[in-house]
Design a protein that fits this description.
Elements: H1 2-32, H2 40-64, H3 70-85, E1 88-92, H4 98-108, E2 113-118, H5 121-131, E3 139-141, H6 149-160, H7 166-172, H8 176-185, E4 191-194, H9 200-211, E5 221-229, E6 235-241, H10 251-267, E7 273-277, H11 288-302, E8 308-313, H12 315-319, H13 321-327, E9 339-341, H14 345-358, E10 362-369, E11 375-377, H15 384-396
Parallel strand pairs: 1-2, 1-4, 2-3, 4-11, 6-9, 7-8, 7-9
Antiparallel strand pairs: 5-6, 5-10
C-alpha cells in the first residue's frame, strides 16, 4: 500500500513543480519582455531563481504536506486501492476555484476518481490556464447549458413535494450547490464535495432537501477521522462525533450518531468500540447530561448493534486499560475505545481539536453522516491538499 500511495504522491509532486515552473517562467517573461528560448543568460538566471524558489517551496511542503505522516500514507493508500477496484465520479460545486482545480488536476493523473467541475466552461478553462493546472479530461458542466435541465427541474419539484414551483426550482438549479446535488441524486455522479466558497449551511441544505436522510434516520450528523502513525508501523485511527453539526443532540440523536460513526469507522479500517462520553462513569456523577448518555447507551444496546458500545464513560475510563479495568471490569469497551461520541457539539469540537493538536493526529472531516449519498463540506480556508484528501474520503464512502 505504501508503494501505491507513494507512486501517486510522486506523480503529484512532479506535476505540481512543473505547473509552478510554467507559472513562474510566464511571469518572468512578462516582466522582462524577453524570450527565454532566445537568451541563454536569461535562461540561466531564471533557472537559478527557480531553484531557489523550489528550495523554499520544498521546505514548506516538508512541514505542511499532509502525506508526510506514515499513518496517513497507509490510510490513503488503502482508500485508493478500494477506489481503483471500483472507480467513482465526484462533483465539485466550485469549478473555477484554484484549490478545486489543483485537486482535480491531481485526480486526473490517475483513474480511480473522475471529477465533474460545475461552472461556465470558458471560465473554468480560463481559471485553469491562469493557475497552470492541467484539467484535460475533466467533465465541465454549466447549469445554464445543461441539456437535461427540464428533467432535473421536474425531479426536483417532485422531491420538494409541492414546496417549490418549477420556476423556483429552475432558479435554484442555476446555483452550483443545488445543481451538483441533483447530479448526485440523478445518478450522474456518486458523491459531492463543496464548501470551498459556500457556507456549511449552503452545502447541507440542498443535501437534506434532495438527497435526504437514510431510511430510519432523522438527522444528519458528522464524524472526524483522526490518524497517527503507530510505533508498530500501522495506523492509529480514531473516530469522533458529532463535532460539527448537532449542537445538543437528544438521546435518540445520539443513537443515530453512534451508529453512523461506527459505520464510518469501518470504512477506515476501525473495528468500532464505541464509548459514549461524559463527566461520569457508570453513575459516579449525576446530572441531565449523564442521564442522556446512559439512556442513549441503553437504547443502543436494546437494538443489538453489531459493534461494541458502552457508556456513560469518562475519557480516561474509555481509553486507559488500567482505569477502565478498575472502573468497569466487565465492559467490552472500557480501556480500549476507538470511537467516541460526545454529549454536545462544544465537547466534540474541543475534544477533536485537543487530540489533533496535542496528540499530533491528522484530522479529516467533518464527514457528513446519515445521508443517502456522500455529500461533504470543505472549510472555506482549506488548501488543495485538503480538497484532494476529502475527495478521496468522500468517494470511499460511496
Amino acid at each position: 500500500m505504501h508503494r501505491v500511495f507513494l507512486y501517486f504522491s510522486t506523480i503529484w509532486m512532479v506535476g505540481r513543480q512543473i505547473s509552478l515552473f510554467e507559472i513562474f517562467l510566464t511571469k518572468i517573461v512578462r516582466i522582462s519582455g524577453q524570450n527565454p528560448a532566445n537568451t541563454l543568460h536569461f535562461s540561466f538566471q531564471t533557472l537559478a531563481i527557480w531553484l531557489g524558489w523550489c528550495y523554499i517551496n520544498r521546505r514548506y511542503d516538508s512541514e505542511h504536506n499532509l502525506y508526510c505522516m506514515e499513518g496517513t500514507q497507509l490510510m490513503f493508500g488503502q482508500l485508493i486501492e478500494k477506489l481503483k477496484a471500483s472507480p467513482k465520479t465526484i462533483v465539485f460545486t466550485e469549478g473555477t476555484d484554484a484549490r478545486i482545480l489543483e485537486a482535480s488536476a491531481r485526480l486526473l493523473s490517475s483513474t480511480f476518481l473522475k471529477p465533474i467541475l460545475i461552472g461556465n466552461e470558458q471560465e473554468v478553462q480560463a481559471a485553469a490556464e491562469k493557475t497552470g493546472f492541467n484539467i484535460n479530461g475533466a467533465i465541465i458542466m454549466d447549469p445554464t447549458k445543461y441539456d437535461k435541465m427540464e428533467e432535473m427541474v421536474a425531479a426536483m419539484v417532485e422531491l420538494r413535494k409541492g414546496k417549490m414551483t418549477p420556476e423556483q426550482c429552475r432558479e435554484l438549479l442555476l446555483q452550483g450547490n443545488y445543481f451538483g446535488t441533483m447530479l448526485v441524486k440523478m445518478g450522474v455522479a456518486d458523491c459531492l464535495l463543496g464548501g470551498a466558497t459556500y457556507s456549511t449551511a449552503d452545502t447541507v441544505r440542498p443535501a437534506l432537501q434532495l438527497i435526504k436522510t437514510k431510511p430510519g434516520n432523522k438527522i444528519v450528523s458528522s464524524c472526524f477521522i483522526m490518524v497517527r502513525a503507530a510505533a508498530t508501523g500501522s495506523n492509529e485511527v480514531l473516530a469522533m462525533g458529532d463535532c460539527a453539526i448537532n449542537i445538543d443532540p437528544s438521546e435518540d440523536d445520539l443513537v443515530e450518531i453512534a451508529r453512523e460513526c461506527a459505520h464510518c469507522a469501518r470504512v477506515f479500517g476501525i473495528d468500532p468500540k464505541v464509548a459514549l462520553l461524559s463527566y461520569s462513569t457508570k453513575g459516579s456523577g449525576k446530572g441531565p447530561d449523564v442521564d442522556k448518555m446512559r439512556n442513549a447507551t441503553e437504547k443502543l444496546l436494546a437494538t443489538n448493534p453489531d459493534f461494541a458500545v458502552d457508556g456513560e464513560l469518562q475519557f480516561d475510563a474509555a481509553v486507559s486499560p488500567a482505569v477502565g479495568g478498575l472502573k468497569c471490569p466487565d465492559s467490552p469497551v472500557a480501556g480500549h475505545a476507538n470511537t467516541f461520541i460526545f454529549p454536545n457539539i462544544s465537547a466534540g469540537n474541543i475534544g477533536y481539536k485537543m487530540v489533533q493538536r496535542l496528540g499530533k493526529f491528522d484530522a479529516y472531516g467533518p464527514i457528513l453522516l446519515g445521508l443517502n449519498a456522500p455529500i461533504n463540506d470543505l472549510s472555506r480556508g482549506c488548501n488543495a491538499m485538503e480538497v484532494y484528501s476529502m475527495a478521496i474520503i468522500t468517494a470511499a464512502l460511496a
